[in-house]
Design goal:
The protein is 1% helix and 47% strand. It has one helix and 23 strands. Strands 3, 4, 6, 7 and 8 form a five-stranded antiparallel β-sheet that branches. A four-stranded antiparallel β-sheet has the order 12-11-14-17, with no helix packed on it. A four-stranded antiparallel β-sheet has the order 18-19-23-22, with no helix packed on it. A hairpin with a 2-residue loop joins β15 and β16. It is mainly beta and 293 residues long.
């Protein structure tokens, strides 16, 4: 462009040149996807555009992680994916800004995201974790021990557990966060848990207010059993002094098995049918339990 006087026909300015740039496809929307695990770098974002790329046209992305200022570039893309989209993968969790540039027939194209940034966030699930409680075997040589696992974090569903690093993962009951492992014998059991994305529970510690994951959380759980089998020994037996008397006495010594609060559960039957447990007293002396009737 240049101006010309309407009076004398003389040009009044220098020539001003300008270039009309072809507009790049515009980003209309996006879908960010969380990382599969707390410590994985597999987040992604799918960008949707208002049109496909034309022949001789290409675009490039520059993505900066605002949290740590690392930058990655994706250059000279000549074709979009399905539904006029493009998916950028392998992104760690964080806050990002994207700059979009491109060319048409070798000349720079225009995009609002060339001068202004497109912002998005990749999130992550909380780390997988679990707690446990246990019940030891009640009788010597028994197989009635159990472990109760309670899981949290990750996908919050579809949890599985593994015993003794055997690489055989067993699902929790559907739509639950806890499971009871039954019929266990005396022994030490190594337990781990993972979520629906196969993210395994790991040891957690705090650094600067952030959770940092360490080694796999292989918890060793010891299921014990009584040292001795349950036995009953009659240490004293006194018959009634005369017919119809009620001054007889029986003292039973109970050892082994599983004590609960220094006591055993017991029942006394007369003639095999009549319950007379209420007539008995008990003593716990030198770690030995006595029933006195």
């Amino acid at each position: 462009f240049r101006t010309k006087s309407s009076c004398g026909g003389q040009y009044r300015s220098e020539v001003v040149t300008y270039t009309i740039k072809k507009s790049l496809p515009h980003i209309t929307s996006s879908i960010p996807y969380n990382t599969s695990c707390y410590d994985s770098d597999d987040g992604k974002i799918t960008l949707f555009f208002d049109r496909n790329l034309e022949e001789y046209e290409n675009i490039s992305f520059s993505i900066t992680n605002i949290d740590n200022y690392s930058t990655n570039s994706y250059a000279n893309i000549t074709q979009l994916q399905d539904n006029k989209s493009y998916t950028i993968e392998n992104l760690p969790a964080g806050n990002y800004k994207l700059k979009l540039i491109g060319k048409y027939k070798g000349n720079p194209s225009y995009s609002p995201n060339s001068d202004q940034f497109y912002y998005f966030t990749i999130q992550k699930n909380s780390p997988v974790n679990f707690t446990f409680s246990k019940t030891d075997v009640y009788c010597k040589g028994g197989e009635d021990g159990c472990i109760v696992l309670s899981a949290s974090g990750g996908t919050e569903n579809s949890f599985e557990y593994e015993l003794n690093n055997n690489d055989q993962w067993i699902a929790f009951p559907s739509n639950t966060r806890s499971v009871t492992i039954k019929n266990l014998k005396k022994g030490t059991y190594i337990v781990n848990v993972r979520d629906g994305n196969k993210c395994v529970a790991k040891i957690q510690h705090n650094e600067g207010g952030k959770i940092v994951l360490g080694d796999i959380k292989n918890i060793h759980i010891n299921i014990s059993e009584p040292e001795k089998p349950l036995t009953i020994t009659y240490t004293e037996k006194i018959n009634p002094k005369f017919s119809g008397a009620s001054n007889g006495k029986i003292v039973a010594k109970v050892e082994g098995g599983t004590l609960s609060n220094s006591s055993y559960s017991f029942e006394i039957l007369k003639n095999g049918t009549q319950t007379i447990t209420n007539l008995a007293t008990t003593e716990f002396v030198n770690n030995v339990f006595y029933i006195i009737l």
